[in-house]
Design brief:
The chain is α+β, with helices and mostly antiparallel strands. The protein contains twelve helices and 13 strands.
Length: 421
């Protein structure tokens, strides 16, 4: 039933998605400015030793592709002199170093926008250390709020079921793919497509518990067994997404590139401020509901002692199903925000899952407010670490902070010590 549900939702996406991965290895991308394709731009690819591999010119639909002979690390250069008048690479990085795996296609994104706009200062561009630090600090908070939406749902599921759900990242991907489906194929504006995606994400979470996790609970499946099952479910969903959506990275129709607004030393795209406001509003609303409403108190009772909660007349299965619904909706919203931030790919949720686990562990397993604080710490540490280490290694900074804090406070920032024995 679950597979049929996914198949029905993705069949039109699978039939209509473009940019499928070709055989062999390649570097590819799509150049867009405010949703419109940019043609006639030259991109060159060279090996690490400087050997020229090939070049391509973006077509009328903005797409370009350069085959590479084998897996490895390559330098991708966009010739800024071939950009149309008035356009520039907004992040100041027309040259990127990327890793291509054997028999895979690597997607490269060059954000384009009007000259004079920026989504962040380029390194070594004359920007002061403190201005760059402030920019990375804001980017970290923005990324942390995106992580927090997924981490809150994961923390609630762990709190009520004790399940470490390795398939939670696929709920994030599901939200982004649903928004893409309704934005590109159905033709809805992105805002409406995002609302539909969040609703479908909640429905997906509800159906998972109704036909799958609830059945395992009734059979009294052990937590370790359920965790291993969640790994298998994650792999199954990921390959379904790959089969239906293909391996290319796609962009939404709107909000691909926006001129930045100057706020002090920062240049921030309006879409980022709107996403921040939505994330804060949703996180505060869910957190207050957990504290102030009867359903929230029942959820906390189930998380504290399910047997005692059941003896008090609380329908434990109903509360857990509600938690799965909320967790699915929050993860879907996180996926939409992440898709706007960096594009949509079938493994985007899987790539963020480690940071979500780090945020939940850092804040304290099973604590909603801890997940929020842990997410902000992880997001900020991830971005600020690029002041000293390469961008490709930025996740190391967040994991280093996690290890240091857990060494001194094993229960996490807001977690409670548990007595053993």
């Amino acid at each position: 039933m679950l597979t049929a549900f996914l198949g029905c939702l993705f069949v039109s996406l699978g039939l209509s998605a473009t940019g499928a991965s070709a055989a062999g290895q390649a570097v590819q991308g799509t150049l867009r400015n405010n949703g419109d394709p940019v043609a006639g731009v030259t991109i060159a690819v060279t090996a690490q030793d400087g050997t020229a591999i090939g070049s391509a010119t973006s077509a009328a639909d903005g797409k370009w592709s350069v085959p590479v002979p084998a897996g490895g690390t390559y330098k991708v250069d966009l010739d800024v002199s071939t950009l149309p008048d008035g356009l520039s690479v907004t992040n100041g990085r027309p040259s990127l170093t990327v890793t291509v795996f054997a028999d895979n296609v690597r997607n490269v994104i060059f954000p384009l926008g009007p000259k004079g706009t920026s989504s962040g200062p380029p390194p070594d561009s004359g920007v002061s250390f403190w201005d760059r630090t402030l920019d990375l600090l804001y980017t970290g908070v923005h990324f942390g709020l995106t992580i927090a939406l997924a981490a809150l749902g994961l923390s609630l599921i762990f709190g009520t079921m004790g399940l470490t759900n390795f398939s939670h990242g696929e709920l994030v991907t599901f939200g982004a793919l649903m928004a893409f489906l309704f934005n590109w194929i159905v033709g809805l504006p992105l805002v409406l497509a995002a609302v539909v995606a969040v609703a479908l994400g909640g429905l997906f979470g509800y159906l998972q518990d109704l036909v799958f996790w609830g059945w395992l609970r009734r059979r009294r499946t052990g937590i370790i067994g359920m965790m291993i099952i969640s790994i298998g479910l994650a792999l199954m969903l990921r390959y379904i997404y790959l089969f239906m959506f293909r391996g290319s990275t796609q962009q939404f129709r709107e909000y691909v590139a926006q001129p930045g607004m100057d706020i002090g030393p920062l240049s921030i795209a309006p879409k980022n401020l709107i996403m921040d406001g939505v994330a804060i509003l949703v996180l505060v609303a869910v957190s207050l509901a957990l504290v102030l409403t009867r359903l929230g108190k029942a959820t906390r009772a189930v998380a504290t002692n399910p047997a005692l909660a059941a003896a008090s007349g609380i329908n434990v299965d109903r509360i857990i199903r509600l938690v799965w619904t909320i967790g699915g909706a929050l993860a879907a919203l996180s996926g939409v925000m992440l898709g706007i931030f960096q594009g949509i790919n079938y493994q985007m949720g899987f790539q963020m899952l480690l940071l979500v686990f780090a945020a939940v562990t850092l804040g304290g397993l099973g604590t909603a407010f801890g997940a929020l604080i842990g997410s902000l710490v992880v997001g900020i540490a991830t971005q600020l670490s690029t002041l000293w280490i390469p961008v490709e290694l930025k996740n190391v900074g967040a994991l280093a902070v996690l290890i240091i804090i857990i060494l001194f406070r094993p229960q996490g920032i807001l977690g409670r010590r548990e007595r053993i024995g």
